[in-house]
């Protein structure tokens, strides 16, 4: 075991492992990168089609790029790219240090974006990334380790356009046994003023979709305003419960007892009403799930406090 692991348990900067980890804050993860392509209309169109986003602001001669595309302009595709700001140098050193201290597993925990200015076709994208923070030692349900946050600043024609933060946990997996696994509790959904009505519906075994009072557009997930016309008034429509698998992934790792034994399939379900939502596909083996497979809504009783909408495939 690395000598810093024991002395770093105190969690105070300047002592043992934690002191060494803190020295990486502010260090660049690579050289300044240049976007492979200018911001362009075809990529905007493909993005909007994939997301089902029909906002008129993303079309026509005065089109802007959807803000959530911010990081898309920094990606290099499948081929190698020598001018990208890939994680290297300080980032690799930091991870080797954590590996040597026994924190050999890694999981992405969250990301956040901040938008400063609109991106328009023709903008040239440049970007750079730094290690922003390294946390003291934290204990989570997955294990004990350190959260590492990187920040990418994205510029358009030399002007700051937005910031992308990506956080991951570098950890030592907790030792699990069958008794503890059976008692794992499913994480609670985040309920706020914008989606409380949806979860009220789920509690009553209803899958509610928003419909704009202005233009009639259906939308899911729940939003405070219409993404088609911008209208703020809406009502709800109860979904029929039928749909098809539009896309899916099979979850293998990391194992998380609260979600049951893996592998299991998570699908992007296209409801008969035309909107899409993400949920588990149940009732068929994970390796039998297919795009286009019909599914039907049911509600899974997770525990005494929580029901969740899932989709059953197969003939039963």
Walk me through the structure:
With about 325 residues, the chain is an alpha+beta fold. It has two domains: about 5-175, Thiol Ester Dehydrase, Chain A (Roll); about 195-315, no CATH class. Helices cover about 15% and strands about 35% of the residues. It is built from six helices and 14 strands. It has helices spanning about 5, 15-20, 40-50, 90-100, 180, 195-205; strands spanning about 35, 105-115, 125-135, 140, 145-155, 160-175, 210, 220, 235-240, 240-250, 265-270, 275-280, 295-300, 305-315. The strands form three sheets. Strands 1, 2, 3, 4, 5 and 6 form a six-stranded antiparallel beta sheet that branches. It is globular and about 55 Å long. The N and C termini lie far apart (about 55 Å). Residues about 1-15, about 80-85 and about 175-180 have low confidence and may be disordered.
Summarize the structure.
With 316 residues, this protein is of the alpha+beta class. The chain contains 6 helices and 14 strands.
């Amino acid at each position: 075991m690395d000598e810093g692991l024991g002395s770093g348990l105190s969690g105070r900067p300047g002592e043992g492992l934690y002191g060494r980890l803190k020295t990486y804050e502010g260090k660049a993860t690579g050289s300044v990168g240049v976007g492979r392509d200018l911001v362009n209309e075809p990529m905007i169109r493909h993005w909007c089609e994939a997301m089902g986003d029909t906002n008129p602001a993303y079309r026509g001669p005065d089109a802007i790029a959807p803000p959530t595309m911010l990081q898309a302009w920094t990606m290099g595709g499948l081929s190698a790219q020598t001018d990208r700001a890939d994680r290297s140098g300080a980032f690799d050193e930091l991870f080797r240090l954590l590996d040597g201290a026994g924190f050999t597993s890694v999981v992405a925990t969250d990301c956040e974006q901040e938008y400063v200015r609109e991106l328009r076709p023709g903008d040239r994208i440049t970007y750079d990334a730094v290690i922003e923070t390294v946390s003291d030692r934290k204990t989570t349900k997955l294990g004990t380790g350190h959260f590492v946050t990187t920040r990418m600043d994205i510029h358009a024609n030399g002007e700051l356009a937005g910031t992308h933060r990506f956080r991951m946990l570098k950890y030592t997996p907790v030792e699990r046994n069958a008794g503890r696994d059976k008692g794992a509790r499913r994480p609670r959904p985040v309920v706020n003023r914008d989606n409380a009505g949806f979860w009220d519906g789920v509690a009553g075994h209803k899958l509610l979709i928003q419909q704009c009072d202005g233009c009639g557009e259906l939308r899911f997930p729940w939003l405070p305003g219409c993404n088609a016309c911008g209208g703020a008034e809406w009502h709800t429509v109860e979904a029929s419960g039928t749909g098809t698998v539009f896309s899916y992934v099979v979850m293998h790792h990391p194992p998380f007892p609260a979600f049951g034994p893996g592998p299991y399939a998570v699908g992007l379900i296209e409801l008969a009403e035309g909107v899409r939502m993400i949920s588990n596909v149940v009732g068929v083996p994970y390796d039998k799930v297919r795009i286009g497979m019909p599914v039907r809504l049911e509600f899974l009783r997770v525990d005494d406090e929580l029901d969740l909408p899932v989709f059953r495939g197969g003939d039963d």
